[in-house]
What does this fold into?
Amino acid sequence: MMLETVAAVPGMVGGMLLHCKSLRRFEHSGGWIKALLEEAENERMHLMTFMEVSDPRWYERALVFAVQGVFFNAYFLGYIISPKFSHRVVGYLEEEAIHSYTEFLKELDNGNIENVPAPSIAIDYWRLPPNSTLRDVVLAVRADEAHHRDVNHFASDIHYQGCQLKEAPAPLGYH
It folds into this structure.
């Protein structure tokens, strides 16, 4: 749950900075503002879903506030300095998230974590069948993380080639 609070920051920061750049230069973003803000919203939905499964305590919420504040400012500065590096780092973080969710699935399959019914927020958001379980939710979240990985590595590759994001169409509408 802690990681999901931080995971929503890069898409929001990247989308916000591209939005401001687009306004300053009177130019389109090639769909990248929407793609990055979609990523941020999707990560937020991961958090909202897992909050339904576990009940965070007050000190966990305080820790989230502190960690998110530090990470937001660090990522903001990092993105201004090097969007190429920032997107690459996020791509690698998403790869780690995929690995973590794969381990989560193993724990569910081994019975170490109870495979409870999926929260209604997850059923609505991912359009899951009504009888879905936590395992189904984790599979959907892991697929989202794989998409975020691919989008961020793609964005970094565009910068690596000396181009701007607006020169390559953003991958939109995955969700």
Q: What stands out?
A: Helices lie at 2-25, 32-53, 58-81, 83-109, 120-125, 134-160. The first helix runs from residue 2 to 25. The CA atoms of residues 118 and 134 lie 5 Å apart.
